[in-house]
């Protein structure tokens, strides 16, 4: 997709509220028909970025382009984007139908065109039998669908979703995520979603931009972000991770050798790094890529370490096992996920067991910052 | 815990309410008195209500009062709503707390002072006093009440509802009339009724600011009472009491509806299961 010209482009955009910099000199390109997620903790500037695109905030400096058009000076009510609000912001004094028709009426469409489109939207969001109801007569999930139908009714060039599923319970949220993806595929509209929920971003988005303190930390596909985070912040923010502090001891064409701060753990990887010999780095490895078994490690073997089972979190499908590794007084914990593939295990791993933790050469990544 | 009313509660209720309403009840009863002497009960009759219909002076005064109340309540509602919008919406600006304090000051300001200052203003402006000066004066003090009532409605208003309307292509002014106003309407209506009622029974400010040919009903009653209470006055007062009571009840009903609506809106906002 990056061969095409970008559909939405933020160019050196900065937004300040008094002394506080919400968005700091940020540039970002989003392509047509993408389902793009802005992901970050609260106060990272993701919502401000979206509100600038919608026209509710004006950038302090920088430009925003949508479909080749500079949006500067265009008020919110003339922009070809529509937004689905976190609070849904349904008009409480109008029925579902009228809520959906509101935007179409602003476009001076004929009555028959309006009612056709409203019907289409009701069908798309499976709200046909609720058309005459007022928002307060609907459940949370139904209101959420009304908000979606209303924001899609005008066939916007881009749909902005501000934490759209935050108010729904977990099951409904998961269902709605898939529904959103189906709708996006059907309408082929560009979707931009703002969320703090990494699972949600991973599920729905084609690409994710991870934000922190008003800046982009990493922009990549969900798999890249998960498997090849570019910093400790991203590795830690997305999913669960073991971050092992280490120093570079050998570099060769076939990979890198690290000496970790955990006594007895030397790490050999296929990955090359631009860190020099003796530099401090972090080795990030996901718990599900750490194998755990009873026993002791082979002398001098790399990517292996002895541990003592300290805590077990049984989640049903998997168990997360925390093991103490390295010197006893240092409290270094290595997390490993253990898939519970059989219902009964003859010799299960349990508290205070001596175990060996091992991983492959390509299981983790070296991070410099 | 179901606990019946104690003797203390019952007694204080009876004493309190008699204190408040006994004079009014007496007034209502004596308005149906057949006797011309106000203090002597001479049997039931509605003759004073009938003779009221032929009392040109009182009818004129009533007509003036109604027109003053209607116009001043309407103008006060527009101005008060605008003031409330500015105070709630425009965020922090220099002097915001000064402004909001100044809006509420006339609520506690002695009426005599307000009336006197308005009188001085009209004299200084070389304005002949009459119907319109009373309207201006009533608008001035009723506006504060409207601002207070509307403000309470606006505080619970989810701003993103307006943003949603604009996002869907509705310009700001149109958004106000299509979205904001219908949602805050119960507050605006309650404010109007409050302003209407306040104007209806105001004596002090009206006496200061009125002129020849614009005597309001409270002023007329007051001047007649000084010449002796007639059962006719009792009848007029009874009608006034009924009108004001209806106004207050309607305003509080509207406010209650607004409360219920507000709770609904909040549930909408938080997306709870409805």
UniProtKB/TrEMBL annotation, chain A:
Its GO CC terms are:
ATP-binding cassette (ABC) transporter complex
For this protein, what reaction is catalysed? Answer: ATP + H2O + polyamine-[polyamine-binding protein]Side 1 = ADP + phosphate + polyamineSide 2 + [polyamine-binding protein]Side 1
User: Is Cell inner membrane found in the keyword set?
Assistant: yes
UniProt cross-references to Gene3D superfamilies, sorted A to Z: 2.40.50.100, P-loop containing nucleotide triphosphate hydrolases (3.40.50.300)
Q: Which Pfam families match?
A: ABC_tran, TOBE_2
- Give the enzyme class: translocase
Q: Which GO terms describe its biological process?
A: putrescine transport
Keyword Membrane (UniProt)? yes
* EC number in record: 7.6.2.11
Q: Which InterPro entries match?
A: AAA+_ATPase (IPR003593), ABC_SmlMolc_Importer (IPR050093), ABC_transporter-like_ATP-bd (IPR003439), ABC_transporter-like_CS (IPR017871), Mo/tungstate-bd_C_term_dom (IPR008995), P-loop_NTPase (IPR027417), PotA-like (IPR005893), Transp-assoc_OB_typ2 (IPR013611)
Record GO terms (molecular function): ABC-type polyamine transporter activity; ATP binding; ATP hydrolysis activity
Q: Which residues form the ABC transporter domain?
A: 8-238
Q: Which UniProt keywords apply?
A: ATP-binding, Cell inner membrane, Cell membrane, Membrane, Nucleotide-binding, Translocase, Transport
Question: Subunit structure, briefly?
Answer: The complex is composed of two ATP-binding proteins (PotA), two transmembrane proteins (PotB and PotC) and a solute-binding protein (PotD).
Functional note: Part of the ABC transporter complex PotABCD involved in spermidine/putrescine import. Responsible for energy coupling to the transport system.
The record's comment on protein family reads: Belongs to the ABC transporter superfamily. Spermidine/putrescine importer (TC 3.A.1.11.1) family.
Q: What is this protein called?
A: Spermidine/putrescine import ATP-binding protein PotA
From TrEMBL, chain B:
Keywords, sorted A to Z: Cell membrane, Membrane, Transmembrane, Transmembrane helix, Transport
Q: Which residues cross the membrane?
A: 6-30, 66-87, 99-125, 131-155, 176-198, 233-254
Where it mainly occurs, coarsely classed, is: membrane
Annotated signal sequence is none
ABC transmembrane type-1 domain segment(s): 62-254
Gene Ontology CC terms: plasma membrane
In the record, the note on similarity to other proteins reads:
Belongs to the binding-protein-dependent transport system permease family. CysTW subfamily.
PANTHER family assigned to the protein according to its UniProt record, in alphabetical order: PUTRESCINE TRANSPORT SYSTEM PERMEASE PROTEIN POTI
Q: What is this protein called?
A: Putrescine transport system permease protein
Species for this entry:
Roseibium marinum
The uppermost taxa in this organism's lineage are: Bacteria, Pseudomonadati, Pseudomonadota, Alphaproteobacteria, Hyphomicrobiales
């Amino acid at each position: 997709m990056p061969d095409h010209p970008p559909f939405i482009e933020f160019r050196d955009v900065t937004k300040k509220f008094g002394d506080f910099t919400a968005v700091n000199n940020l540039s970002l390109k989003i392509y047509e028909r993408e389902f793009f997620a802005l992901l970050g903790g609260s106060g990272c500037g993701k919502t401000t970025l979206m509100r600038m695109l919608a026209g509710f905030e004006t950038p302090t400096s920088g430009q925003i382009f949508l479909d080749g058009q500079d949006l500067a000076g265009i008020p919110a009510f003339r922009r070809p984007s529509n937004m689905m609000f976190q609070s849904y912001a349904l008009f409480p004094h109008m029925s579902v139908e009228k809520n959906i028709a509101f935007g179409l009426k602003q476009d001076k469409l004929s009555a028959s065109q309006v009612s056709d489109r409203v019907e289409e939207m009701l069908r798309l969001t499976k709200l046909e039998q609720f058309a005459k109801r007022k928002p307060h007569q609907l459940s949370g999930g139904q209101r959420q669908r009304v908000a979606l139908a209303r924001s899609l009714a005008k066939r916007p060039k881009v749909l902005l979703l501000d934490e759209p599923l935050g108010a729904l319970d977990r099951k409904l949220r998961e269902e709605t995520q898939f529904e959103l993806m189906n709708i996006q595929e059907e309408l082929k509209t560009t979707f931009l979603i703002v969320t703090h929920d990494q699972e949600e971003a991973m599920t729905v988005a084609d690409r994710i931009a991870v934000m922190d303190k008003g800046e982009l930390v990493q922009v990549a596909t969900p798999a890249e972000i998960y498997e090849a985070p570019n910093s400790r912040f991203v590795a830690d923010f997305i999913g669960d991770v073991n971050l092992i502090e280490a120093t570079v001891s050998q570099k060769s064409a076939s990979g890198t050798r690290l000496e970790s701060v955990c006594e007895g753990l030397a790490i050999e990887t296929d990955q090359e790094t631009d860190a020099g010999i003796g530099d401090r780095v972090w080795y990030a490895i996901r718990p599900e890529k750490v194998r755990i078994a009873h026993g002791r490690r082979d002398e001098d073997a790399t990517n292996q370490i002895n541990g003592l089972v300290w805590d077990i979190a049984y989640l049903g499908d998997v168990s997360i096992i925390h093991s103490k590794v390295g010197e006893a007084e240092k409290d270094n914990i290595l997390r490993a996920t253990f898939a519970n593939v059989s219902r009964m295990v003859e010799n299960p791993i349990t508290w205070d067991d001596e175990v060996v933790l091992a991983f492959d050469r390509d299981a983790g990544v070296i991070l410099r910052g | 815990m179901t606990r019946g009313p104690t003797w203390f509660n019952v007694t204080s209720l009876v004493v309190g309410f008699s204190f408040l309403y006994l004079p009014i009840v007496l007034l209502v009863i004596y308005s149906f008195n057949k006797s011309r002497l106000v203090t002597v009960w001479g049997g039931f009759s509605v003759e004073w209500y009938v003779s009221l219909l032929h009392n040109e002076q009182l009818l004129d005064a009533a007509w003036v009062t109604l027109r003053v109340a209607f116009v001043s309540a309407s103008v006060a509602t527009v101005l008060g709503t605008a003031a409330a919008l500015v105070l709630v919406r425009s965020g922090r600006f220099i002097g915001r707390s000064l402004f909001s304090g100044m809006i509420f000051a006339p609520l506690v300001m002695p009426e005599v002072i307000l009336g006197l200052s308005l009188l001085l203003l009209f004299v200084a402006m070389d304005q002949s006093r009459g119907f319109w000066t009373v309207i201006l004066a009533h608008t001035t003090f009723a506006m504060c009440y409207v601002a207070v009532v509307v403000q309470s409605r606006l505080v619970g208003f989810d701003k993103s509802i307006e943003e949603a309307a604009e996002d869907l292509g509705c310009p700001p002014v149109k958004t106000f009339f299509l979205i904001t106003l219908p949602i805050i309407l119960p507050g605006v209506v309650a404010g109007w009724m409050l302003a209407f009622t306040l104007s209806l029974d105001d004596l002090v400010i009206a006496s200061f600011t009125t002129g020849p040919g614009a005597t309001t009903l409270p002023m007329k009653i007051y001047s007649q009472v000084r010449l002796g209470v007639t059962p006719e006055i009792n009848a007029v007062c009874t009608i006034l009491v009924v009108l004001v009571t209806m106004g207050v009840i309607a305003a509080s009903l509207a406010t209650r509806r607004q409360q219920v609506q507000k709770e609904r809106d909040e549930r909408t906002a938080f997306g709870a299961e409805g």
